[in-house]
Each structure stands twice: as structure tokens, then as C-alpha cells.
């Protein structure tokens, strides 16, 4: 993961912008597509259900209208005078003339209504007459179930689908599956007595034509069940006989999904309040999924085209952003090679334009600084020349001190010789030909010379000891870093104590630095003052006038030259003494050649 992040961070800004733009677009499109497909799937399914139910209602209305029309025809037949007269006969057969008149009436209705295949009249006495229908056996038709059911519900018209097992036949060649029977009782309006029954056989062609004109999806179909669960009409389809009635819940309307022969089917139903039939629509789920698949395909095509266009636009717009940045990078490369006359020309005032203006301003400032440094270096060279000229006086002082030393030797004044020698070394090392760095050996010798001079004044008050390993002598240090600290130890530590004091100067290597320590057993420093001095040394507080400059001058010189990681730290205990610690980097001597 870390390697991948590193790889990503190292890519160009243009690459990152292109990836981010494409990622945002891709996430947006995929989210909208996924949400849209799911939403459309649900919406499409609901709409398909609503559309199917509307078709079922339409078919139901057409069938109900058709059946009601035939019920009216059956009612008109029962109201015909000749039919009423036949129904009122008791125990006698109608004459040939009466039969002829009834046959004429029935023929009129069958000719006007082609869907009527036959009409039979049966009175309560068992006598019957018919147009193109006859009794198969001599058994009385009064005992037929359809006749008895009509007697039990004289006010209703019964609809019998697939009339199998009747004692009735016809001269026309048709099966029970091609016929639908209507049975209606004839009631005496005066006595409300049931006089007989009118049986009417109807062709299924009209219902078939209604269903054939309805398409549910690409391969869906409709069929009808009666109130007993028997099929009234169904198209030629092996699926319909695999649908179990127990799958369909109670209720006037509903829908469900059921698996049949390894495929899911959407089943919707609606119950007719007119004839207690259940109209059922069946649609394969594949019809739904086919639409969803088409939508998914179109969505993928649109997504691909959108991503291609987005990639082109992203490349164009990122190019307009990156082009001035690359131009600025090229100018920076020239500046790195020393060509400071470069300038960035921007046509806009956006962030990149402002960055370019800052770049131009930076170059102007660099040129100004170069001019300032040139002037300062020129002045510095003039000052060095003046210093060289001023060195004539120190040389005269050295010569004079050598003369006094020679004269003291003549008179064997050893003390004077030692002090003059120490003073000579002090001046010589301190000047060091104008160099800022000297070997540790010379710095220690300078400090020793200073201590020899001080011992001539504080012989009974002061002892000192140097413990500097010889392997440190060859390293370079800033000159005059020990003497000011030794001076502080004498005047602020030893002089303030009672009795004779001692100062020790030691050094050692610690990692990549040289650590000098100047330790005295003098009066020490109070804790509050010690903390304040260390804060000034760390740069956390400004120096006040009450403190001298020697200690802080050494600290500032070290930190200005090598950084704040180096410098001075003071440790002290009141009444016990003080240790001043100098941390100086290890600097090897550079051999001059040529």
C-alpha cells in the first residue's frame, strides 16, 4: 500500500487530475446507472403489472358484456308467449304446430346471434323441445344437475363451462371444450313458480377472439377460471395446466411470482363480480428482464461514450492548467543554470498567473540581493586591506615585547619573562592573521597564556588545570571561545567565594561534536538567574543590560556559524560551583594547495 501511495505521489499533476476527473465521472455515472436501472426495474415491473391488470379488466368487461347480452337473449326467449305456453304444459306433449312455432322463434334468435349453437326448452313436467338439440337417452332431463341447479336459484343465470356428462347432444360436431352453456329458470310472474328451464349452448369463438386480440408482453397469455376453479377458457399452452389454484390467494385482485418448469412467471388475477369468474394473466419474467437487459445495454453504451468524451475533455482542460505550470518549470530550470533574466508571461490572473508574478518578483529580488552582496563584498575587500595595513602596529607591539623579554632575560627576571611570553602568545593567537578558525591546540594555548597572566595577579586565590586530549588538537574551532568563559569563571565564580578556588578546562568527543567544559568551584548561580541565562542562550528571551556580552557573544558566534543545535549550556548549584558546556562541531583542518 505504501509503495502504491509513493507511486501515486510521484505521478504528474496532469495524470492525477485526469484520474480524479475520470474517477468522479465514473462513480457518478455508475451510481446513476445502477440506481436508474434498479428504479426503472421496479417502475417497469409496477407499470407492467398495472398495464396487465388494465388489460385483464378490459377483457373482463368485454366478456361480461358478451355474456350479459346473451343473458338478455335468454330472458327474451323465456318471455316469448309460445315459450311460456310450453312451459305451462303439465304432463302433455306439445302439438306439431306448437313445436313448429317454438322452433321458428328459436331459429330467429340463433340466426341473429351466430354465437348461439343451440337452444333447448325443458318444462317442469319433463317435456322438452329444441332447435338442433336432442336428448341422448330416455332419462328425464328434469333429473339433470343443471336443471336442478336452476330450480334452486331461479333468479340467477348459471354459466357452465365444459358441460361434460349431460344427457343432451346436438347435430353439430363440437366438443364440450368448445361450448359454454347458459341455464336460466322460467318463473311464472303471477305465482313465482318455476315452470321450466331454458338451456343455451354458446360457441367459444367470441371469447377466443377477445383473448386473441390481447397481448401480454411478447409471450404472455390470459385464461379464465370459474368459481369452482375449472378452466372456462385457456389458449393452447402447457403452462396453464401447471398453474395450481392454491397458488392464487383469496381476494378480488392480486399478483405473485411463481417458478414453472425452471422459469419464473408473473401471475396476475382479477375476479369478476358479474359472473364470479377469475381472469388470470401470465407473463414470463424473461419479458421483464429482456427490457431491463436492453436498458442495461443502452446504459453501458452511453457510459462508454460519456467516459470517452470525458477523457477527451479532461485531457484538454488539464492541459490548459498544466501548460503554464510546465512553462514555469522550464523557466525555473533556466534560472537554476544561472540565467536570471528569465520572466514568466501570463495571460490570466488566476492562481498560476499570480504564482508567475511572484516568480518574476523573486527573480528581481535575487538580482537586487546579488547587487547588494557584490557591493558588500567590495567593501569587505577594502576593509581587509585596511586590516592588513593596521597589522603593522601589532607587529611593532610584538617586536617591542620581544625586546622587553630579551632585557628581562639579561637581568634573569623569570616572572617578567613568563608574563611577557604569555601576553605575546595572547596577542599573536588572538589576531591569527585575521582568520576566524584556529586549531584546538592554539585555542588551548591562548587560554593557558591568559591563565598565566591571571595567575600573576591571583596566585594565592586561584589554581587551574587543562585536560585536553592530544587527538583533539588538530580539529578546527572558532577562535577565542574559551578565554571569555574562563574570565567569567574567575570574576563571577572564584572571586565571589571565600578561600582559594580552582578552574578546570576539559574536552571530549561526543558523537559528531567536541564538548568543552569549564568548571569552577566558586559561588554558583541562583536557580532563577540560571534559568534566565539559559533561556537567553537558547534564544527564548532577549538579553538585558545587566548581563555582560562575553558569554553571549561566544554563543551567538557558534550558532550563527553552525546552527542552533550547537552553543553553550550552563549547569550550576548555588554555593558549589558552575560548569559551562560548549558544543562545537568536529571540523577537520583543510590543507591549502597551490
UniProtKB/TrEMBL annotation:
Q: Which SUPFAM superfamilies does this UniProt record tie to the protein?
A: ATPase domain of HSP90 chaperone/DNA topoisomerase II/histidine kinase (SSF55874), HAMP domain-like (SSF158472)
Gene3D superfamilies cross-referenced by the UniProt entry = 6.10.340.10, Histidine kinase-like ATPase, C-terminal domain, PAS domain
Where does it mainly reside? Answer: membrane
List the Pfam families hit by this protein, alphabetically.
dCache_1, HAMP, HATPase_c, His_kinase
Q: Describe the location of the HAMP domain by residue ranges.
A: 319-371
Q: Kindly list the GO molecular function terms attached to this UniProt entry.
A: protein histidine kinase activity
Source organism's superkingdom? Bacteria
First-tier enzyme category under EC:
transferase
TM ranges are: 20-37, 297-322
Question: Topology in the membrane?
Answer: Multi-pass membrane protein
Instruction: Show the catalytic activity.
Output: ATP + protein L-histidine = ADP + protein N-phospho-L-histidine
What protein does this entry describe?
Answer: histidine kinase
| Alphabetical keyword list | ATP-binding, Cell membrane, Kinase, Membrane, Nucleotide-binding, Phosphoprotein, Transferase, Transmembrane, Transmembrane helix, Two-component regulatory system
Q: Domain (Histidine kinase): give its ranges.
A: 478-588
Compartment list? Cell membrane
Q: What is its EC number?
A: 2.7.13.3
CDD domains associated with the record: HAMP (cd06225)
